[in-house]
Amino acid sequence: MTHLASGYPQRIVCLTEETTETLYLLEEDWRIVGISGFTVRPPRARKEKPRVSAFTSAKIGRISICDLTSCWGSRICRRTLPPSW
C-alpha cells in the first residue's frame, strides 16, 4: 500500500520498537527505511528492514545512507544524534 501524500515523511528511520510497531499497525511500513537493532515487534520487521541503531546509540553512518526524510525515536535516542537532527 503506497501513498504518496506530499508533505509527509516518505523515508523514516525508527529508533524505537514502538515507532516501528505503530507504523506497521497503520499499514505505513512501506515508509520505514531503518529500525533499531532491539526491534522484535512485529517479527517481520527484523526480516524486512535494515537495523541501523541500538536503543541508546545511533549509528550515524548507517542512518545517513538511508536517505531519510524523518527520524523517529525518544528523548534517550536524541542524545546520540547530531544537534542538527
In short:
Helices cover 28% and strands 16% of the residues. The chain has helices spanning 17-25, 43-48, 60-64, 75-78, and strands at residues 12-14, 32-36, 51-53, 70-72. The chain has a 4-stranded parallel beta sheet.
Would you give an account of this structure?
With 85 residues, the protein is an alpha/beta fold. Helices cover 28% and strands 16% of the residues. It is built from 4 helices and 4 strands, in the order βαβαβαβα. It has helices spanning 17-25, 43-48, 60-64, 75-78, and strands at residues 12-14, 32-36, 51-53, 70-72. The chain has a 4-stranded parallel beta sheet.
Break the fold down into its secondary structure elements and pairings.
Elements: E1 12-14, H1 17-25, E2 32-36, H2 43-48, E3 51-53, H3 60-64, E4 70-72, H4 75-78
Parallel strand pairs: 1-2, 1-4, 2-3
CATH superfamily: Nitrogenase molybdenum iron protein domain
Q: Spans of 5+ residues with little confidence (pLDDT < 50)?
A: none
How are helices and strands ordered from N to C?
A: EHEHEHEH
Query: What is Rg?
Result: 12 Å
The major beta sheet can be summarized as: 4 strands, parallel
In CATH terms, what is the architecture?
3-Layer(aba) Sandwich
Secondary structure tally: strands: 4
Q: Approximately how much beta-strand content do the residues carry?
A: 15-25%
Helix content: 25-40%
Distance between the termini: 28 Å
Discrete helix count? 4
Query: Rough shape?
Result: globular
In total, the number of domains comes to 1
CATH class: Alpha Beta
What's the CATH topology label? Rossmann fold
Strand order of the largest sheet: 3-2-1-4
**Averaged pLDDT, please?**
79
